[in-house]
From TrEMBL:
Pfam family, one: Glyco_hydro_16
SUPFAM superfamilies registered for this protein in UniProt: Concanavalin A-like lectins/glucanases
The protein's name in its UniProt record: Beta-glucanase
Entry's Gene Ontology BP terms: carbohydrate metabolic process
Similarity comment: family membership: Belongs to the glycosyl hydrolase 16 family.
UniProt entry tagged with the keyword Manganese: no
Length: 271
């Protein structure tokens, strides 16, 4: 006895296969990313120091994110092919009166790019008040007019990372939901995760572990400064930060805290 075909021309196993393929294709489209051409990377393989052709230590400033920046060796290390950036309690450095000291480096005036994909693979150790970040600023432009792209920010012991776009439009005009200017994505707190952003002429696209988290599009608007990212090249900042109005107070008993950076890469989308 033959089994009647109840699927309108497809045997049941064929229909199941078709549905599986459609689901897989939909997922692939949703998480699609562009590699482009690899034009720059740093694997941090030097045993003694990061490459000063690419990087400089971030100087101290007055904002929450850089008010504890230090050039002291205790805040930096190279270990097993990884860059270590630390946040430490300052108990004995009489030449520096800051209670906490943090390490951070950037490619300002050395490496900057336009359209393409930035990737960073890193492990973020946790502490109350810890605020590690990977982000982009314009090489030749003022903030916030030239924009800011936060590839990753992690707070305290969170199992999520924040990814955010800032500009004159979002900061000065305070338009943060048209379009939505940020999102979060899950991370594995005890492991290495890969964070990425793609800069396109019409959008920014964010990823965690090659899974798309959100995109920020260029839109038609009469408001100023909504999408400045086609006008500048951007340099990369990698920094450990401690304390501030967003992350909250630091627990000194949980210091020192480290982040371990395995590599950074940039893929160009230009031919």
């Amino acid at each position: 006895m033959k089994t009647p075909n109840l699927t309108g021309g497809y045997p049941m196993y064929g229909l199941l296969f078709l549905l599986l393929m459609m689901t897989t294709t939909a997922c692939s489209v949703n998480n699609q990313y562009h590699k482009g051409k690899l034009v720059w990377k740093d694997n941090f393989n030097d045993k003694k120091h990061f490459n000063t052709r690419y990087w400089s230590k971030i100087p101290r400033g007055t904002a929450d994110w850089n008010r504890h920046m230090s050039d002291l060796d205790e805040c930096y290390d190279m270990r097993n092919g990884k860059l270590i950036l630390r946040g430490i309690l300052n108990n004995e450095k009489v030449q520096d009166t800051a209670r906490f000291l943090t390490g951070g480096i950037y490619t300002k005036d050395k490496i900057s790019f336009g359209y393409g994909r930035w990737e960073i693979r890193a492990k973020l150790n946790a502490a109350k008040g810890a605020w590690p970040a990977f982000w982009l600023l314009a090489q030749d432009g003022k903030w916030p007019e030239a924009g800011e792209v936060d590839i990753m920010e992690r707070l305290n012991h969170d199992s999520i990372a924040y990814q955010t776009v800032h500009s004159y439009y979002t900061h000065r005009l305070n338009i943060k939901d048209n379009p939505k200017h940020g999102s979060t994505g899950k991370i594995d707190p005890g492991a290495f995760n890969t964070y990425a952003v793609e800069l396109h002429p019409d959008k920014l696209v964010f990823f965690i572990n090659n899974q798309k988290t959100f995109s920020y599009p260029r839109i038609k608007t009469d408001k100023e400064g909504q999408f400045p990212f086609t006008d500048y090249k951007y340099y990369l900042l990698l920094d450990m930060q401690l304390g501030g109005s967003w992350v909250g107070n630091v627990d000194p008993a949980q210091l020192p805290v480290e982040m371990e950076i395995d590599w950074v890469k940039f893929y160009s989308f230009k031919n």
